[in-house]
Amino acid sequence: MGASHYGNFIRRRTICHHRSRSRIGKRTGLVQPALWLACDNATRLDMKILFVAQYGPLAASSRTRVFDYLPLLRRAGITCDVKVVTPDDLVKRNTRGIFSRLLYYVLSYFRAWWTGWTCVFIASQYDAILIQKALFSFPIPRLLRRYRHKIFFDFDDAIFTLENPNAGWINRLRTQRRAMAVPAMLQTAHCAIVENAYTAEFAARYCPYISQITGPIDTARYVPSKKITGEKIVLGWIGSQWTTRYLDMIRDPLAVLSRRYPNLELRLIGAGEFDVPDLQIVHMDWALETEVDHLQTFDIGLMPLPDDPFTRGKGGYKLLQYMACGLPVVASPVEINREIVTHGKTGFLAETDIEWIEFLGTLIENKTLRNRLGIAGRARVIAHYALEKSSEQLLALLQRSTHQCDTLSQ
Q1: Cα(first)–Cα(last) distance of the chain, in Å?
Q2: 173-195 CB burial, b ≥16 within 10 A, e <16
Q3: At residue 33, what are phi and psi to the nearest 5 degrees?
Q4: What is the torsional sign of CA 378, 381, 382, 383?
Q5: Which of 5, 244, 326, 367 shows the greatest Cβ crowding within 10 Å of its Cβ?
Q6: Whole-angstrom Cα distance, residue 26 to residue 11?
Q7: Exposed/middle/buried for 97, CB within 10 Å: 0-12, 13-18, 19+?
Q8: C-beta contacts of 198-204 below 8 A and 24+ residues apart
Q9: Residue 212 · residue 394 · CB < 8 Å
Q10: How many alpha carbons fall within 13 Å on the CB side of residue 309?
Q11: pLDDT (tens digit, 9 = 90+) per residue, 104-122?
Q12: How far apart are the C-alpha atoms of 56 and 87, rounded to whole Å?
């Protein structure tokens, strides 16, 4: 169930799955996004939307769920303004030092407070406000609800859970604040936009309408490489220093494979320290300008992930990146991964060490299989998770809620 499942809405405490053929009606709250194409009168798309992003475009969540949409929405005639709570230059100053992290969170809190009050005062200038992951303290959510009913709250992680894999006291305080703030933001929203069924189920407790948009991924930017496969077989992973620990799950399988296949290499984009005996590991710095080039050097994409309340909220963006680049994938069968990966057709779902060794070994030895799964994976991403598809879904939500398209409001 991805962005192509346009009719997917959830009424409070009731989860219903509908495809784009679903009927439209005020009572059910169902929407058929394909109908926005029929609204070709420019005045029908004369909307003004305020996007409030927690981070700037360097953060994957804000980039994919706000900034990537803007050119397509503006092309449709929508005026889009953006306010960023925590800009990229502030995020870059956040280091592992306890005082710098504490200062970062304090500054972020006050920027959220300032941005929230700004939204209250300018809300009347917009047809709708889409808040991406930003959390506002009382009484801002209540005031936004009072003065501007068309609020969309988008979040792409399980930011509502109290379980935080990072046990530092600063992060525990941050986790508790987020867990308390999310229900208030959902109660403020006319519609919540989530990435998977796990987060949708939580959101449905507080918000009357839910729409699922997984990803999205810009398939015009993430494309297969034209490289000629060399002697080395490259396993690849993209992430951050904080998520590098997930690779510990497959350290032993990688050690076995490194002894079995001397031509094996592991390339890590944006990772922290990680080592495996006898395995050549290449660390690559992450940058927005180079990430696609680095991804295109992979032969197989990896996504190990533990199964816990926090990871169940993830949207599988690594998988979308790999598959859009035409790579076969091996991933843990956690929540959304089971929907994105068609086992045996676009990649493999591995739960045990034996399965990781077996599936990776099969792909390492069979170039034809790698190519076939890679082609099928990219086709699946284009069909279900592409930016263009998700833009249609988002535009339909905005149109219906602001009554800009008469067809959708009947």
Answers
A1: 26
A2: ebbeebbebbbbbbebbbbbbbb
A3: -60, -25
A4: positive
A5: 326
A6: 12
A7: exposed
A8: 198/158, 198/312, 198/313, 198/335, 198/336, 199/155, 199/156, 199/157, 199/158, 199/160, 199/313, 200/10, 200/15, 201/10, 201/15, 202/158, 202/160, 203/10, 204/10, 204/11, 204/12, 204/13, 204/14, 204/15
A9: no
A10: 11
A11: 777 878 888 898 898 888 8
A12: 5
Mean pLDDT of the 397-406 span: 64
pTM above 0.85? no
pLDDT beyond 80 at 100: no
Q: What is the structure's pLDDT at 211? A: 93
pLDDT by residue (tens digit) across 322-372? 999 999 999 999 989 999 999 999 999 999 999 999 999 999 999 999 999
Q: What pLDDT shows up at residue 97?
A: 66
Amino acid at 44: R
Q: What is the pLDDT at residue 30?
A: 33
Give the whole-angstrom CA distance, residue 326 versus residue 405: 37
Q: Cα separation of 331 and 333, whole Å?
A: 6
Which domains does the chain possess? 9-216+387-409 (3.40.50), 233-384 (3.40.50.2000)
Per the document, the length of the chain is 410
Q: What is the pLDDT of residue 145?
A: 79
Distances in whole angstroms, Cα of residue 266 to Cα of each of 59, 228, 256, 273: 24, 18, 13, 13
Token pair of 194 as six digits: 């989530």
**pLDDT band for position 163 (50/70/90)?**
low
Cβ-Cβ contacts under 8 Å for 121 (sequence gap 6 or more): none
Predicted pLDDT of residue 6? 32
**pLDDT given for residue 348 in this prediction:** 98
